[in-house]
Amino acid sequence: MIARRPLIAGNWKMNGLKAEARALAEAMAARFNSVGSVGFDMLLCPPFPVIGTVVGAVAGTGIAVGGQDCHAKVSGAHTGDVSAAMLADQGCQFVIVGHSERRADHGESDAQVRAKAEAALAAGLVAVICVGETEAQRDAGQTLRVVETQLEGSLPAGATAQTVVIAYEPVWAIGTGRTPTLNDVAQVHGAIRAKVARVLSAEAAAEMRVLYGGSVKPDNARALLGLADVDGALVGGASLKAEDFWAIGCAT
Ligand code: PEP
């Protein structure tokens, strides 16, 4: 079996003024520096205005930094937007695209998510593509169909395990303290890998990291991250506490 190095990604969402962002990033950097090596990759995704602050605070540690979104175009008349090239220029290596809060708040479609992911790849960033069902879709038994449709619509052609990470985030589990059963997570992650094999290739599917996201905390991380097809976590609330985020990483 191919070993996929776990990725623990923190989505800070719209949280963190400069001083808080620096303190949190420095706290993560200190933990990295206090140990010789770790068995996982760490990614911090702060809000745009503090990306430079965070990049500076984690420089030399191996902790990666990413944006929470990008525009599909390289530049132009798109007031308030940020391009993937701008993120790369600030020192980012990753960008989250298609987070359910973007899909809900900004009406982003699968096609737009794919265009953003393509822009990320063109700028040399790794795209973290989020998929996941709402509670109503889950209750209607549509989870696998929804997730597979999102993947089909948002995975860029030619994506590889080096350029794309998938995050399965059930919308109803985000910020609620609720999580699917381990069996349900295992089933969806298995289906995601099978879908990636059909859309891309068996090789891409075997190597691509598929993260779980939605109320991951130190006390449930070990069980979730212990599932065969779960290659890390996308963490919201718990990534704002250095101790909790580190504990989640150490649970891999
Ligand atoms: C998220 O926003 O991607 C997320 C998973 O949030 P939380 O961990 O707070 O549920």
TrEMBL record:
GO CC terms of this entry: cytosol
Record's catalysed reaction(s): L-erythrulose 1-phosphate = D-erythrulose 4-phosphate; D-glyceraldehyde 3-phosphate = dihydroxyacetone phosphate
Annotated substrate binding sites: 11-13, 175, 215, 236-237
Compartments it resides in: Cytoplasm
Active-site residues, record numbering mapped to chain: 99, 169
GO biological process, one term: glycolytic process
Keyword Isomerase recorded: yes
Function description: Involved in the gluconeogenesis. Catalyzes stereospecifically the conversion of dihydroxyacetone phosphate (DHAP) to D-glyceraldehyde-3-phosphate (G3P).
HAMAP family reported for this sequence: TIM_B
Protein name in UniProt: Triosephosphate isomerase
Annotated source species: Pararhodospirillum photometricum DSM 122
Source taxonomy: Bacteria, Pseudomonadati, Pseudomonadota, Alphaproteobacteria, Rhodospirillales
